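Continuing the series of single-chain predictions for the mutant panel. This is the parent chain; the variants come on the following pages.
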Amino acid sequence: NFPPFWPIMYHDIDVEVPIGDRQTVRVLFYMWLALEALLVFNCVSCFIVLVSHGSGVSNAGASFGSSFIYLFTITAGSFFLWYRPVYNAYMKDSSMFFYLFFVFNGFHILFDAYMAVGVPGAGSAGIIVMLQCLPSGKKLAAAFCGISFSLWVIHALASLFMYRKVRMHYKIKGHTFSEAKQQAYQGFAQS
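Parent structure:
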């Protein structure tokens, strides 16, 4: 039943996730949806920077192209590499899926920070690109970059908060790395 317009997998938090963990998984799902909206806003911001032709802005075309590619690659990657593992971790109470979440969500938090910085040509309308827009008087482009920067920082901080919350749940449940390795070996042996 997900995504609704062309279902490819079953996704129902109210049915598959235990009652006490539903709110956490729902917040993580909303954070994933917020990431998708942020990627769209970032792409629009990069497009505005591109069409504004700021004299101090370097690599605006490359930034827009990269941000457009991120719409597809980061969407799929984030869903299958950090959201789906944490969904499965709560659903199956699996140490291996928790570890997958910790690794890939850690990379995701670093990606959020990287996008907030806004390295020119890297697909981000972050702070550096905003500072490049200001001297040439491109206020609309700078405003969009500032909003994009703020949203990336907020998303990174929220992701860090949820990472910590999931980590506390993981420790309270008594999961260990050796348990995760054992589950991984069993999974490989069965396939």
